Amino acid sequence: MPRxxxxxxxxxxxxxxxxxxxxxxxxxxxxxxxxxxxxGLPGPEIWVKRExxxxxxxxxxxxxxxxxxxLTPAERARGVVTASAGNHAQGVALAARVLGIRARIYMPRxxxxxxxxxxxxxxxxxxxIILAGDSYDEAVTTARDDERRTGAVYIHAYDDLQVMxxxxxxxxxxxxxEHGPFDAAFLQIGGGGLAAAVSCWxxxxxxxxxxxxxxxxxxxxxxxxxxxxxxxQLDTVDIFCDxxxxxxxxxxxxxxxxxxxxRIETVTNDEVGAAIxxxxxxxxxxxxxxxxxxxxxxxxxxxxxxxxxxxxIVSGANIDLLQLSLIAQSANAPAAPARTLRIRIPEKxxxxxxxxxxxxxxxxxxxxxxxxxxxxxxxxxxxxAAETPGALAEVPSRLDAHGYEWEDITGAVxxxxxxxxxxxxLLAAPLFLRLDFYERPGALHDFLDKRVRDRASFCYFxxxxxxxxxxxxxxxxDFEDEKHRDLFLKNLPEQGDGYRSCKPVAAPxxxxxxxx
Length: 516
Prior knowledge:
Layout: H1 8-23, E1 32-35, E2 45-50, H2 61-69, H3 73-78, E3 80-83, H4 87-99, E4 103-107, H5 113-123, E5 127-131, H6 136-150, E6 153-154, H7 161-176, E7 184-188, H8 193-205, E8 210-216, H9 221-228, H10 251-260, E9 261-267, H11 269-283, H12 293-300, E10 309-314, H13 321-329, E11 338-346, H14 351-359, E12 364-371, E13 377-378, E14 381-385, H15 389-393, H16 395-401, E15 405-408, H17 413-416, E16 429-438, H18 443-452, E17 457-464, E18 470-479, H19 482-490, E19 499-504, H20 507-514
Parallel strand pairs: 2-10, 3-4, 3-6, 4-5, 7-8, 7-10, 8-9
Antiparallel strand pairs: 1-2, 11-13, 11-14, 11-15, 12-14, 12-17, 16-18, 16-19, 17-18
């Protein structure tokens, strides 16, 4: 029977077998590693396919190289064109250099610089990068125009049988690893090529495995297709997970996935950030957001998966350093359960420390924002974390027991963007201090207790936990008069127990802050 007349799933399996003979001219198999969660809580046995260790630091080399390896001499002479958010582009670039094929690669304008530079590195003189549009779909439109205009061969990122077959070779490596079988596989979805090929191949050898698709909440095009019974285009798409930010699932992947996937899970950007942290803390693996989607879904369903053997794929590590630093520092990826509270206290000396002493004992303050706005009441904002959700859940009852009025503002925009207003006309003799203290339990509290209590009132506080061993805070104090302020400064050591440095902010900065 001709291959073209076979059912789609059988054709895909055949093409994966043929891809075995092609892709390893361009790169080597990647490892499958055990990830052990370190908190001691019940959960599944997790195995991670490390595509971040591939030639282009992402799985996309497999499909691009397999597709380009079968181009005819005439097609190679015409050159190729493609569109990509980054990882597919690197695969095309690698294949272009190895095979000596000219390639024009259209990438969205916001594509991380690390991915643009990697394309140039892998492709050298054989590739030309053209930035077009603000999204992957806009880049595709421009690339398709190029295809029609020039006759170049378009290399699709996911909606192509041989591209999908190339991706399926990573599933072949999993089967051959002797670490299986697995109870479940959590597979990230952008256009769907990876999830379709991997689920098809795994279920061929392990029919009982449950294959679950995973998408970001703001980019769930495959889930929308499942719900509608046909492919639909999303009006908007979140690009935090830029490698999977696709408005419409691929046709071939959709036809496979609807037969092989049991369901589709969605995860939030916060959950993805937490998964990136876990990958770093356990495997020292730096994942791009799209690469951590599968693990994010596993962690989300951790209790239900306890005792099972599950598989995830780190599909890529091409993350811009700036985005990585934001994920590491953001409350979007806390190391422990966290919530943000705005609490009302009297605008009187010592009340802030009494709040800390009475209600936050044993908790980790990861963010502290406050600016004086009235003469009567203060509304400081604290983001607090605890090792367990139970410890965090006790905080409201503590606040209620001590008579504090409070509100939960977790995720508030003004807190995220650190908009901290301060009325300078309410201050008598302000002093602003840059404090560098050792990030250990009690260090900040001890400084405030020993150096500030009963000497001044807080008028400003700006602190966010960065994960460093040294915490940094900008603190505003208000004194009765300049005499008391000067005396405080005179007796304040620049270094002391629990802190490394405490220096007053220059006078011009005083004026800028106190006039906000």
